[in-house]
């Protein structure tokens, strides 16, 4: 089950039949090997009937029907340990596979006729065939003919695409907005996208011009005016002008979220503010970005949750945990020798299973 804090990842919601993702409150569950959905109260709202079910994205979720065999996405959001992945986890064709997208009531809104599919984002979903990858809209209409070797989702109205060894960006109409010229390319945020050229990372603007020179060994997306960049084996942060505002001091550095970023220093994780000062001192074995006011952290190999002051809100007792979204978090619990997936609320109360 995919669970995360989108934080402006999808600012430009597409119009159509899919609704408002912030009000969905649908969470995938498994019952006797079949997948369905509960609401935020833990009540089943879509009867378990699918071989797999995924998080809702702008009001729709991709699911696999009971009669359609198996399928593998290029970027799986569930564990497919037993299934072979190829081309850097890009897309494996599945015979007789059929993917559907359902609305929050459980009605099918689109059925894919393609061998490979991915979730909707900004009203477009990537689909693949023997000819390559393209995109459909929320009505199932083919908007960009399959032709690319690799694609990423639309984000801020552009999608990174690759042909051969070169990446560029396309618009929802299929027009090449920024020519395919980079060794790697990721999403735009704050008007900038990290791209790789000649073995180094920099940033381009929406016009395709270089805004921050290619000088980094690695680079993240921008979030809240900061991007993590790696140089000389250490991570720091630059602003949208390319100025190093937080020095390269960290072994790992995550995106800013809700005013804080988790970073790793001397082997342990803590949280800094946009000026680089530690607000929550390093003391965790691992830490995740804040989402809905809480962040998952690991202490003595157990997952719990803290608030933005570093106060422990839910004691570390889970085998695994993901961020809160729409008021619930997915966790893995071990009880009586049994390991199972569950959902909890922000007080740590188990909502599902009942």
Walk me through what this model shows.
- This protein is mainly β and 354 residues long.
- The chain has a domain at 1-155: Lipocalin (Beta Barrel), CATH 2.40.128.
- 0% of the residues lie in helices and 50% in strands.
- The protein has strands at 27-31, 34-38, 44-50, 52-53, 61-64, 99-102, 108-111, 116-121, 124-129, 132-137, 142-148, 150-151, 159-163, 166-170, 176-182, 184-185, 192-197, 200-205, 210-216, 218-223, 226-231, 234-238, 244-250, 252-253, 261-265, 268-272, 278-284, 286-287, 295-299, 302-306, 312-318, 320-321, 329-335, 338-344, 350-352.
- The protein has a 4-stranded antiparallel β-sheet, with no helix packed on it. Strands 8-9-10-11 form a 4-stranded antiparallel β-sheet, with no helix packed on it.
- Residues 1-23 and 64-96 have low confidence and may be disordered.
What topology does this entry show?
Blueprint: E1 27-31, E2 34-38, E3 44-50, E4 52-53, E5 61-64, E6 99-102, E7 108-111, E8 116-121, E9 124-129, E10 132-137, E11 142-148, E12 150-151, E13 159-163, E14 166-170, E15 176-182, E16 184-185, E17 192-197, E18 200-205, E19 210-216, E20 218-223, E21 226-231, E22 234-238, E23 244-250, E24 252-253, E25 261-265, E26 268-272, E27 278-284, E28 286-287, E29 295-299, E30 302-306, E31 312-318, E32 320-321, E33 329-335, E34 338-344, E35 350-352
Antiparallel strand pairs: 1-2, 2-3, 4-5, 5-6, 6-7, 8-9, 9-10, 10-11, 12-13, 13-14, 14-15, 16-17, 17-18, 18-19, 20-21, 21-22, 22-23, 24-25, 25-26, 26-27, 28-29, 29-30, 30-31, 32-33, 33-34, 34-35
